[in-house]
From TrEMBL:
Binding site for Ca(2+) 3: 134
Annotated binding of Zn(2+) 2, by residue: 178, 182, 188, 196
Domain Peptidase metallopeptidase: 68-223
UniProt-listed PANTHER family: MATRIX METALLOPROTEINASE, MATRIX METALLOPROTEINASE-21
GO MF term (any one): zinc ion binding
Reported cofactor(s): Zn(2+); Ca(2+)
GO cellular component, one term: extracellular matrix
Name this polypeptide is given: Peptidase metallopeptidase domain-containing protein
Organism listed in the record: Hibiscus trionum
InterPro entries: MetalloPept_cat_dom_sf, Pept_M10_metallopeptidase, Pept_M10A, Peptidase_Metallo
Entry-linked Pfam families: Peptidase_M10
Amino acid sequence: MAVKFSHMLFGAFVLLFVLQPCVIKSLKLDSLQNLEQVQKGGVASGINQVKQYLKTYGYYPHGVKLTLGDRFDHSLESALNTPSGFTVNGVDTVFARALKSWADGSPFKFTKNSNSDIEVAFYSNNHGDYPFYDPVNKVEAYAHSFYPEIGRVHFNTLYTWSTNPTSRQVDLESIDVHKLGHTLGLEHSGLKSAIMYPYIDLGAIKRNLTQVDKDGLKAMYMY
């Protein structure tokens, strides 16, 4: 099963303010305004300066070559689409651990490539499918996901994500393991200790599959 990791936030201009305030102080305003207007593949004055600052502050994935120039290329897109507080490699590591939890508890194997069955991304509320906010129950979801064969997992950028959450942060791996369960076809469980239980508090960590989670997958796929 192939997995695609794409990390999308509010857009390039806003994301720069989220990532590093010290970067913003050193970048010229016209560089940021030019970046806001250009799309991937386009060229605009000042993009080269943005690339160099993002490279300096660790937002380029390990092994991705910095290509100088004012073209909005794939490597710049990867750097811009990193959630606040994470590097690209850090996000990928969390998602890889979440996938491993399901791989260890089932016969499934996951590989990372561009032709994917599961796609993981960060979005703001209005992002083209159903919103994170539920006006009936007045609840803002941490994330939402889709059952097979759509297999998309979208994380809500309204929340502060962490791998070591405080009482006001959300544990990225805990939510990812839960949402990946939905992409594999599982519904919610009534067992509070189960990964597929529908509720988790801010600051809580729950990353390990229970036997109920494993049995649910086994019953569904009959292996």
